Predict the 3D structure of the following.
Amino acid sequence: MRRFLYVTRAVAWRSIHNTLVNPAIIVPSIIFPLFFLVAFAGGLSRIGDVPNFDYKPGYTSFQFVFVFLQSAAFGGVFTGFAVARDFESGFARRLLLGAPRRSGIIAGYAVGAFMRWLVVAVIVTVAGLIAGMNVYGHGIQLFGLFGLGLGMNFGAALWAIGIAMFFRTEQAGPLIQMPVFVALFLAPVYVPLSLLTGWVHAVSRLNPITAVMEAGRGLFAGSPVKVVLSFALLGAGAAILAAFSRRGLASAERAG
Amino acid sequence: MIRERSLLEQISAVARRSAMATYRQRALLVFPMLFPLILFAINGSSLSRATEIPGFPTSSYRAFLLAMPFVQGAMFVSISAGTSLARDIETGFLNRLALTPLRSEAMLVGQLGGAFVVACVQAVVYTLVGLATGVGFASGLGGVFVLLSLSLAIAFAFACLGGLLALRLGSGEAIQGIFPLLFVTLFLSSATLPRNIIKAEWFREVATYNPVSYFLEGLRSLVIQGWNAQALELAFGFAALLAGISLALSSTAMKSRLART
């Protein structure tokens, strides 16, 4: 356990250090959520006038929760790019040779992703407040929303690290981000689930991210729904994706 | 007359090479073509309730949204054209080409040939997808041909912009880095809602000054309105303006790039 923590701390510190030394690394993770917040909360605010749209804090808050969770997920995704880059530069292979407990590498990258997302989460929240979003949830409920973000970030990071370790090239970028992007957009992004129609409604109902999004919006509005279900889904997802990323690591180990 | 024909032959020779290079890497074109369709499929259904907003111009959100894949596809074409030209700069092919009697206009326009082929395929695919998902064309069969012509004009304009960026930046990686900026211009336009019903005033202002709105509105008018001369003039006009400015600046950039080496 001590060796695991040692490797985790070292890899996480390197990831944070790289961000501090080269802030450009974090720019895409900040720009994309802000851009979505501007485009959706600004450009689509009229959607809040659609009959039966009844999210009390308003459309900006409705979109803020999506953007907050999306920033968490993409914070994890961008870590996958860093892992792929480390393999292309040869650093990851040296890391595999030097680490006394290799599963700590995955944990280290995931912790690094979380630390970077913290910065993004603060910026996105400030932007949301500037944009005039209403917050109806109290402290514990908002902490619950943060917990959901943490779960999304962790799950996405494990997915991205797994793919990056399987392919060990930056060309795997679309494969890292597209499934996350599509899964996010197959949840109720623009209107609540009850207002979705057609095939997207059918797919959204089965999409685990829908429950997470609904729970996040419920917490933000001060009327929680599906919170336990969401945390259970995120926990199960993290367990499956942890096994997946471990297999990715094993694949990288075999490749040498 | 002889000189003009010769220029056309030169453009055709370079364009043929560019098109072949694109054809050989056709697997890389699948994602840029699919991505706009994925967004069309998701947003077309997710935002269908927007048609209930008073003043929304059509009862089918898919019909309203169909213009978006065309413009998004054109943006991918610009990146594809730019990356391909940047590769020729990086590998020194452009310099070797400069040693031949080939005219610089032929080098520039011909290099966009591959991107133009991609644009043609994309335009046909997006039109067929629109028809397959039940979108009707208010302007009829003639409108479909004008839609294809306009989408090619827009794609050509974006390809010229990609070429200009390649000549100025000289690196494929830098071109890829520009893509998010193009994507931003798409979302800060009337892509998802008509300008007159956008609620946020500042957003409406940005969309009004954003030429991408006019590309979308020109294409959209053929699908949901019929023949709207003003929308078509603006769309073709902005496409010609973008292509003209990009080609003029590219010509200067080409001279300075070749002089540098």
